Inverse folding.
C-alpha cells in the first residue's frame, strides 16, 4: 500500500494549478443520468472517487469516454469526459458499489425522475459521522415518491404520471439532499420550491449545468431554489468549477511552510471565509488574473478561532487543514465543528507530531507549539489525511503518512504539485 513521505522544513515557491472540484464533478456526473443525450464535462479531476462513480454510472447504462486532456509542463491535469446514458439498463445501485462512496447514493434522484423507480443501497463514505439519509427520503416523498427501506436498500417509486412539484423546506442544510431534490424536480410535473437549501458553489454549478441541459432552475446560491419541471432534458457542455477545498488546502500549506505561491485556475470568491481566516493567521493573500497569490515571509502564525458552518461559513472540509496550521501558532485557538459529529480523528495523529490539542465536545483547543517533529502517522479520512501532510511540511525530519488511498479520493497529484514548489514530498510504494 502506498505511503507519502514528507521531509519538513522547505518553503513553498512557485505555481500550483487547482483542479476541477471533486464535489461539483460528482453530482454533475450523476446529472448525466437525467438525459439520453451526451453531457460533456470539462475540467474533471482524475481522482479515485471520480473513477468509482464512473463504474457506478456504467452499471446504470452510461457510456463514458475520456479525452481532450489539457497539458501543462508536459503532463495532463484536466480531463474532458463525455457521458451518454441512451438507456437506463438498471435502476438498482448495489451495496458493493454504493458502500464505497456516499455520493453514489445521489443517483436515486435522476433514476427516480427519469425511470419512475430506483433501488439504491444505503451509503457508506468517510467515517466522519452517522450521516443519515432522512432528508433525501422526506424530500423525495414530498415530491410524491413512495419510499420503503428494506434489507439495507431504499426502494423508491414515483406516482404513475411521474414526480409532482411541491414545496419542501429542509429541516437542516444538506448539500447532497439539495443536489438530489434539485435533480429530481427538473423532470417533475409542476413547480418545486426548496426552502433552506444549501448555498454551496457546487449547488450553483449543478444548477448552471442543469439549466444548460434545459432545466428551469432559479434562486440557486440563495436558500430558496425554484425548479419548474420540464418534460425532458438534453445534452450540454459544462466546465467544472475550481476546487475550493483544494485551493484552501494549498493556501494553508503555504501559510504553514512559508513562501510565495500562486494558486492558478481558481477564484477567491469561492472561499472568502477561509481565506480571511488564513489572512488573520498572518499570510498575505491577493487576487491575480488567474487565481490567488499567497505569501508568508518571516511572520509567525497567529492563533485564530473558527467555527465550521454551511456556505458561506468556514467549510467543514477545511477544518482539519486549519487545525494543522494552528498547531504551530503562537497562542491558543479554538476550532468548533458544527456539521459532522465525528470529524476530529486527525487530532490524535497530529498529536503524534507533537501538537497540543484537547477536545471538549465539538470544540478543539489547540495550543500552538514552536516545533513539530516528524513521525509515522495514519490517514483516517480524506481531509484529515491532508492535514497531516500540512503539518509534516513544517515538522522537523520525516513524516510518513500511511493509508494514502484516502488522499487519492480527493487530491489530484498532491505530491507532484507540492514537489514542484520545493517541498520534499514523495510517494513510497511498498
Ligand atoms: C457534502 O457531503 C460533501 N460531499 C462533503 O465533503 C462535505 O463535508 C459536506 O457536503 C458538507 O459541506 C460531497 O459533496 C460529495 P450534507 P453531504 O448532507 O452532502 C446531515 C469531502 O471530504 N444530514 O450537507 O453528504 C449530515 O449527517 C466530503 O469531500 C442528515 O442529517 O453532506 C451532516 O451532519 C466529506 N440527514 C449534515 O446534514 C440527511 O439526510 C450536512 O451533511 C443528510 C444529511
Amino acid at each position: 500500500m502506498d505511503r507519502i513521505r514528507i521531509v519538513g522544513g522547505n518553503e513553498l515557491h512557485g505555481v500550483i494549478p487547482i483542479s476541477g472540484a471533486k464535489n461539483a464533478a460528482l453530482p454533475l456526473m450523476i446529472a448525466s443520468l437525467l438525459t439520453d443525450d451526451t453531457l460533456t464535462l470539462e475540467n474533471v479531476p482524475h481522482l479515485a472517487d471520480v473513477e468509482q462513480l464512473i463504474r457506478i454510472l456504467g452499471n446504470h447504462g452510461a457510456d463514458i469516454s475520456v479525452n481532450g486532456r489539457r497539458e501543462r509542463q508536459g503532463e495532463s491535469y484536466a480531463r474532458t469526459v463525455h457521458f451518454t446514458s441512451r438507456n437506463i439498463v438498471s435502476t438498482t445501485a448495489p451495496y458493493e458499489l454504493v458502500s464505497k462512496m456516499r455520493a453514489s447514493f445521489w443517483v436515486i434522484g435522476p433514476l427516480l425522475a427519469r425511470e419512475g423507480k430506483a433501488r439504491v443501497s444505503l451509503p457508506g463514505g468517510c467515517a466522519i459521522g452517522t450521516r443519515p439519509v432522512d432528508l433525501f427520503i422526506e424530500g423525495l416523498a414530498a415530491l410524491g415518491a413512495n419510499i420503503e427501506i428494506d434489507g439495507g436498500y431504499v426502494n423508491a417509486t414515483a406516482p404513475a404520471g411521474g414526480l409532482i412539484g411541491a414545496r419542501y423546506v429542509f429541516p437542516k442544510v444538506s448539500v447532497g439532499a439539495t443536489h438530489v431534490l434539485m435533480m429530481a424536480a427538473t423532470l417533475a410535473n409542476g413547480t418545486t420550491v426548496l426552502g433552506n437549501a444549501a448555498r454551496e458553489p457546487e449547488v450553483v454549478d449543478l444548477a448552471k449545468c442543469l439549466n444548460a441541459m434545459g432545466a428551469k432552475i432559479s434562486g440557486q446560491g440563495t436558500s430558496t431554489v425554484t425548479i419548474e419541471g420540464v418534460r425532458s432534458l438534453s445534452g450540454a457542455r459544462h466546465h467544472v468549477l475550481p476546487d475550493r477545498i483544494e485551493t484552501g488546502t494549498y493556501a494553508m500549506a503555504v501559510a504553514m511552510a512559508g513562501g510565495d505561491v500562486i494558486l492558478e485556475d481558481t477564484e477567491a470568491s469561492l472561499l472568502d471565509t477561509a481565506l480571511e481566516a488564513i489572512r488573520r493567521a498572518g499570510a498575505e493573500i491577493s487576487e491575480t488574473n488567474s487565481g490567488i497569490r499567497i505569501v508568508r515571509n518571516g511572520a509567525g502564525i497567529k492563533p485564530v478561532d473558527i467555527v465550521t458552518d454551511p456556505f458561506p461559513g468556514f467549510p467543514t472540509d477545511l477544518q482539519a487543514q486549519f487545525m494543522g496550521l494552528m498547531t504551530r501558532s503562537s497562542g491558543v485557538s479554538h476550532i468548533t465543528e458544527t456539521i459532522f459529529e465525528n470529524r476530529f480523528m486527525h487530532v490524535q495523529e497530529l498529536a503524534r507530531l507533537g501538537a497540543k490539542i484537547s477536545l471538549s465536545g465539538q470544540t478543539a483547543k489547540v495550543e500552538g507549539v514552536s516545533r513539530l517533529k516528524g513521525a509515522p502517522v495514519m490517514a483516517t479520512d480524506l481531509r484529515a489525511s491532508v492535514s497531516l501532510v500540512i503539518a509534516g511540511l513544517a515538522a522537523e525530519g520525516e513524516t510518513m503518512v500511511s493509508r494514502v488511498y484516502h488522499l487519492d479520493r480527493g487530491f489530484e497529484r498532491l505530491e507532484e504539485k507540492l514537489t514542484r514548489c520545493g517541498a520534499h514530498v514523495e510517494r513510497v510504494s511498498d
User: Anything to note?
Assistant: The mean pLDDT is 94. The longest strand covers residues 63-72.
